[in-house]
Amino acid sequence: MGAVVGTLTMQTKQRQPSRDKVDDELEMTMVCHRPEGLDQLEAQTNFTKQELQVLYRGFKNECPSGVVNEETFKHIYAQFFPHGDASTYAHYLFRAFDTTNNGSIKFEEFVMGLSTLLRGTVREKLEWTFHLYDINRDGFISKEEMTEIVRAIYDMMGKYTYPALKGDVPKQHVDAFFQKMDKNKDGVVTLEEFILACQEDEMMMRSMQLFENVM
Question: What global pTM score does this model have?
């Protein structure tokens, strides 16, 4: 995780978004120079004010625009998984961080996501994971959505990691997981069903939170 966080701030300096917004820059500057901004983030995250200052200094120094766009995000992931195709998974992960759905990740969104992934409770991490799998944001995970994410993870890992992987393996895994999660057999998985199934099955928990290992 730490390696990618460091790389994210390094790479954004090399590949800036083509259309930076002035208000984003002003907002980030306010967070940097106005104590109440850091106080608010400290209250909303599991980071101390000192940790936030360090995170922001690195983010701002390497990304003067104050935002990270999807192209930059995908570029970073491609370097970490040279034997596979990380573009699809990076797309979905980017959308999970981009809570305002405006096509860019601001410092606040970035640090809020990191706080959950690094120091959140088990439930908070599972809720974040559910949000990642819920592609269409309707509050449910369909078998198609879960298959899309799992297939993206396999594509990212590539043949180097899974030399004997067959094309139907992701579907088989999803079928098994979905059968355990969809308690009422209505064809979709709710947040509570997702959390309950993961808490009951340690292997499923590790599988569903695989993103933690590829962050």
Answer: 0.75
What tens digit of pLDDT does each residue of 19-67 get?
444 444 444 444 443 334 888 999 999 999 999 999 888 777 767 787 8
**Which structural domains are found in the chain, ordered by start?**
48-119 (1.10.238.10), 122-214 (1.10.238.10)
117 burial via Cβ count (<10 Å: 0-12, 13-18, 19+) = buried
Q: Give the integer Cα–Cα distance in Å for 131 and 101.
A: 13
Residue 116, CB-side half-sphere exposure with 13 Å CA sphere:
19
Distance, in Å, from the CA atom of 19 to the CA atom of 11, rounded to the nearest integer, reads 17
Nearest-angstrom CA–CA distance, 102 and 112: 16
Question: Residues of 30-64 as b/e, b for ≥16 C-beta within 10 angstroms?
Answer: ebbeeeebbeebeeebebeeeebeebbeebbebbe
Beta-sheet pairing, 104-106 with 188-189: unpaired
